[in-house]
Write a structure and sequence with these properties.
The complex is a heterodimer. In chain A, a hairpin with a 6-residue loop joins strand 16 (about 375-380) and strand 17. Chain A is α/β, with parallel strands linked by helices. Chain A contains 17 helices and 22 strands. The model of chain B has no long low-confidence stretch (mean pLDDT about 95). By secondary structure, chain B is an alpha+beta fold. Chain B is about 30% helix and about 15% strand. The chains are: A alpha/beta, B alpha+beta. At the A-B interface, helix 3, helix 4, helix 11 and helix 14 of A face helix 1 and helix 4 of B.
Chain lengths: ~600, ~230
């Protein structure tokens, strides 16, 4: 028998978006946070470089330039009303974080210090601008810590290490979630007026990824399984600077501080691909350029990687440091301590003396659970709301990132839309009643877990995961082509079928991570299929979605969001127009 | 290359006491110890249980004892530990299963030091100002990821598990020396408790254990000095 709990508002996920939502919701209504990890383990903590806000602390800046950069960065698939909110609200969101105690780096005058980041410009694309607020290169760590600290101060109720298995949504009304307590294996049903999903991304679909092992898209997958649509799933960002082979992220702050990409010939090749912004072009542009260099045989030693060169002499030779100023080894060490340490620990490379081997790494889901500008989840492309269901952060698609997210904007998204979602959820709870739970609400979740636990087939989850990740890396990565994506889809469908025949070793109740990892693999397979399906359908190239067989952006046919939902066992695709308010789509060059 | 793993195991549903399991796995010398543990879990014995998430030394999930020393399994490379690798759970916290320990008491101690900024002045519409020097004063202790490697390497904690421990003191330091915070007196009082900072006997184990390179012993000594002086600055 499952244990039952009742809260007005339920937040699933304890990263930046979840904690921000919880802080704001719990000021008004009875709120709980459920997380499969201890909150401080959440992936927000790994964000390094910074969080944008046009504070103008270093040089002139304003929200309109920032809004424009976000829209252009997203290759015009961004909903511009949402981008305007992001750009305007970023300022007081960052101020709110400072007031909460976030230890931002400071200028001489004691203000928040800012630095450059890819795609962030002054005067609508003219030159890089210092917009990224930061705490050395552990900005995400400080955001996560600060928000968790405030939750403790505010006595927010947490259920740590609870795995969500099912979303209770019926007749377009969300009623709660079904979870399993990892420690005991007991089922817990949470009945709520409103649920806000802030469960993060699903980069573990790919082989080389910056994402945590726990980023398996569970919350996104359970929405999908309950028939809700997923938006723009073909757009997944590959970050250009992953540690070679391991995928661990080296922050874009490296390039903000002046580091440049270098190929086997020692050329600063971004000068050819992005004459104005060069190494600070958007991430999709940089990742493609790296692949093209590799394809032309100019990878280091002819292999599939290039160098990011952060040696002070290189930066000073190209005058690529902030404002063209001379940089010193001491400055770089102070600005990038964690990044340098990672290069030393994981690669044995001394970044002040050698180039660092990097390759693009699967990093960020632009797509996800469609929401309006207050985090309310959409039931369809017409904008019908799912009553009582909200989403925020990486798992959500507002869409503020469009076809490609700008660096720093994930953190801005977390605090801005986490806060808006939390407030909207609280407002909703104050006027709503509890919708009744279905009979035996935990039954489908129990059946799902029992099927895996009692499976006796020959297939092993570890092997299937490996195969899925390899397929997605080969066919649905930075470059895509129709027949190749089709091949991936077929392979994924076969993997899903084999997944029905898995068996696991651990049959126990207590802390059975064997069971939950296998269950997570099921989520990954679902999301991989939706991603490949969406990528196959979109016959154009835009932002992070690059089709070699359709190498142009096609606004006439494709200036629209993809919605994919499970209907009667197959994938149904519909479209939603992009909201254009201020900036007409034009050619995108950096 | 082949490495030999010896892992301390315990499943409360099956066994009365811990035992060792041994495995030979194929890894690259640039792999992490975590990769070797995953080899075991994914391809040899799925019952092996551990916590892990980010796999690059930031989330703090996978602190464990590796060849007798506390470390993050994702931040220690095979080439740095050798071909014989002994893995045990952190010492001094109750074992839940295999390498998973009960972290509740650790987080309770964290909460006991009021790990949040308190400043009741109206901050106005913009950021509070803080000089780079004031900001630098507590920089080191902001790096803490709450992995518990320091606390569970501390002989004073092993001797008395009521001791608040180095991790909680590091958190306290982070706020005591933040020029924006207003409850230094309360913080120093908490640290002056019999289970507070004076339990530290300066064994330096915490310093060696910290995977974030925090000078934990120095932070503890600065807190001791502040308690003696009755003020941070």
């Amino acid at each position: 028998m499952a244990k039952h709990h009742q809260f007005d508002a339920l937040v699933v996920g304890a990263g930046g978006a979840g904690l921000m939502a919880a802080l704001h919701a719990s000021r008004q209504v009875n709120t709980a946070v459920i997380s499969k990890l201890y909150p401080t383990r959440s992936h927000t903590g790994t964000a390094q470089g910074g969080i944008a806000a046009p504070l103008g602390n270093m040089e002139p800046d304003n929200w309109e330039w920032y809004m424009y950069d976000t829209i252009k960065g997203g290759d015009y698939l961004v909903d511009q009303d949402a981008a305007e909110i992001l750009a305007k609200d970023s300022i007081d969101a960052i101020i709110e974080l400072e007031h909460m105690g976030l230890p931002f780096d400071r200028t001489r005058e004691g203000k928040i210090e800012q630095r450059r980041f890819g795609g962030h410009t002054s005067n609508f694309g003219e030159a890089p601008v210092m917009r990224s607020c930061k705490a050395a290169d552990r900005t995400g760590h400080m955001i996560l810590q600060t928000l968790y600290q405030q939750c403790i101060k505010q006595n927010v109720k947490f259920f740590d290490e609870f795995q969500v298995i099912d979303l209770l949504v019926q007749d377009n009304v969300c009623r709660g979630v079904v979870t399993v307590e990892i420690l005991t294996g007991e089922m817990h049903v949470f009945h709520a007026k409103a649920v806000l999903l802030a469960v993060g991304g699903f980069g573990r679909v790919w082989q080389v990824t910056s994402n945590a092992h726990s980023l398996t898209g569970d919350g996104v997958a359970i929405c999908f399984r309950r028939g809700l649509p997923l938006e723009d799933m073909e757009f997944f960002q590959f970050h250009p600077t992953g540690i070679y082979k391991m995928g661990i992220l080296l922050s874009e702050a490296l390039r903000g501080e002046g580091a440049v990409f270098v190929n086997d010939r020692g050329e600063r090749f971004m000068e050819r691909y992005a004459p104005t912004m060069k190494d600070l072009a958007s991430r999709d542009v940089c990742s493609r350029s790296i692949y093209l260099e590799v394809r032309e045989g100019r990878g280091i030693g002819g292999k599939d990687y290039v160098h990011i060169d952060a040696r002070p002499e290189t930066i000073n030779r190209y005058q690529s440091g902030p404002g063209g100023k001379t940089v010193t080894a001491e400055h770089l060490e102070a600005a990038l301590p964690d990044v340098f340490e990672m290069a030393r620990v994981y690669l044995g490379v001394e970044p002040l003396k050698q180039g660092i081997p990097i390759q693009p790494t699967a990093h960020y889901a632009m797509g996800g659970i469609p929401t309006d500008n207050d985090g309310r989840a959409l039931a369809d492309a017409q904008g019908t709301l799912v009553r009582g269901l909200f989403a925020a952060g990486e798992c959500a698609c507002v869409s503020v990132h469009g076809a490609n997210r700008l660096g720093t904007n994930s953190l801005v998204d977390l605090v801005v839309f986490g806060r808006r979602g939390g407030k909207a959820m609280a407002d909703f709870c104050r006027q709503a009643d509890f919708a009744p739970l279905p009979a035996n609400p935990e039954a489908p979740a129990v059946a799902d877990l029992d099927r895996i636990r009692s499976g006796t087939g020959k297939e092993k989850p570890g092997r299937l995961r490996d195969e899925m990740q390899t397929v997605m890396m080969q066919h649905v990565g930075v470059f895509r082509e129709g027949p190749s994506v089709q091949q991936a889809l077929e392979a994924l469908r076969e993997l899903k079928e084999r997944f029905q025949r898995i068996s696991i070793d651990d049959k126990g109740q207590k802390f059975n991570t064997d069971l939950y990892e296998a269950w997570e693999l099921g989520c990954l397979l679902d999301l991989a299929e939706v991603t490949a399906h969406s990528a196959l359908i979109r016959t154009e190239s835009r932002g992070a979605h690059w089709r070699e067989d359709f190498p142009r952006r096609d606004d006439a046919n494709w200036l629209k969001h993809t919605f994919v939902a499970l209907k009667d066992g197959s994938l149904e695709t519909t479209y939603k127009p992009v909201t254009i308010t201020r900036f007409e789509p034009k050619e995108r060059t950096y | 290359m082949k490495v030999h793993l010896k892992i301390q195991r315990f499943d409360p549903e099956k066994e009365a006491r811990p035992y060792w399991s041994e495995h030979d796995v194929d890894v690259a010398e640039t792999d992490r110890v975590l990769d070797a543990l995953h080899q075991v879990k994914w391809f040899h014995d799925g019952t092996l249980t551990l916590r892990r998430s980010c796999a690059h030394g930031i989330c703090g999930s996978d602190a464990m004892r590796i060849n007798g020393k506390n470390a993050l399994a994702c931040k220690l490379l095979i080439k740095d530990v050798g071909k014989k690798i002994t893995v045990q759970p952190l010492l001094g916290l109750p074992i839940i299963k295999d390498l998973v320990v009960d972290m509740e008491s650790f987080f309770a101690k964290y909460r006991s030091v009021k790990p949040y900024l308190v400043n009741d002045d109206d901050p106005g519409e913009r950021e509070r100002l803080q000089s780079p020097e004031d900001r630098a004063r507590f920089d080191d202790t902001t790096k803490c990821i709450l992995c518990a490697a320091c606390t569970t390497s501390c002989p004073a904690f092993w001797a008395n598990d009521e001791y608040v421990g180095p991790a909680a003191i590091v958190q306290s330091h982070r706020f005591i020396f933040d020029s924006r915070d207003q409850i230094t007196d309360q913080r120093l009082e908490i640290m002056a408790d019999t289970m507070g900072v004076w339990r530290c006997r300066t064994a330096f184990n915490c310093l060696e254990a910290c995977p974030r390179g925090i000078d934990v012993t120095r932070a503890i000594n600065e807190v001791k000095l502040a308690v003696m002086k009755g003020k941070a600055r």
